[in-house]
Amino acid sequence: MLHKLFNFSGQIVFVTGSSGQIGTAISKLFLNLGAKVYGLDVKRKKIKHKNFKFIKIDITNELQTNIEIKKIFKKEKKIDIIINNAGISVYSRIEKRSSIELQKVFDLNLKSIINIIKHYLKYYKKYKLKNGRIINIGSIYGFLSPDFKIYSKGKEPIAEIYGATKASVIQITKYFAVLLANYGIRVNCISPGGVLNKKTQTNKFIKKYSNRVPLKRMAKVEDILTSILYLASKESKYVTGQNIIVDGGLSLK
Ligand code: NAD
Q1: Residue 144 beta carbon below 6 angstroms from any ligand 1 atom
Q2: At 186, which CATH number?
Q3: With a 6 A CB cut-off, is 129 part of the ligand 1 pocket?
Q4: Domain for residue 1, yes or no?
Q5: Is 2 a domain residue?
Q6: How many distinct structural domains can be found in the chain?
Q7: What are the CA-CA distances from residue 44 to residues 76, 96, 137, 188, 228 (Å)?
Q8: Average pLDDT per run of 10 along the chain, which is 253 residues long?
């Protein structure tokens, strides 16, 4: 049904973290809707589709990332949609948290997004584009503190630096929405709650997490995709600078 409502034929979509759980689903979504997708990730995941172009890259390397964006512009003459999806956390106890760990999360979750937007704007202006869309992936932990009781003992899975960078992602979404409105670029954010992943989460954790959610379950990747689709489509042409929270109501309590 989505295929009929939303058509992205001829559009160029740039997705970071395209080999991860959400990034793979985002890439496949746009491929199914007719777009050409450039997926960037440090690790390769095979997405078999004639319109999927994988770029193996560490996007915290600004120089290399700029080169890749430039190459895409040279070939395609445009990028219509940027999805800043790549994100990481650290799992050490706070007493053991190293500066290197802090830097790594900061560099990927925040700095790489600013750099990508910076270089995107440069070429967007050069190629005289219109109707650009940037979608940043935040997190409910950008504005909420985790309930540590639901996580395993002895671990601190949601690091302070993770939430701090995600709070910044929500903020820079607003900043760039205002700045880039002058160029016809809309910038929005999606903040998911915990996404179900049976490969990495135990049944005990899924149950404990779900019990805290008013809608009584964790997010499915599809729940995130429908919001992305809305923000990427012309149906949201008057929406910019927003943070759509997709958490089953968890942050309301
Ligand atoms: P994931 O770990 O499955 O995927 C992240 C991807 O980013 C991986 O493929 C990884 O290789 C890639 N990556 C890591 N460092 C990179 C680098 N330096 N350069 C390029 N690629 C790099 O994570 P996910 O669950 O799919 O999460 C995607 C986004 O959604 C993240 O920003 C995350 O913070 C956010 N989020 C996830 C959840 C969740 O429950 N999964 C909840 C809220 C927000």
Answers
A1: no
A2: 3.40.50.720
A3: no
A4: no
A5: no
A6: 1
A7: 23, 31, 20, 27, 23
A8: 77 98 98 97 94 98 98 98 97 92 98 98 98 98 92 75 98 98 98 95 94 98 97 96 98 94
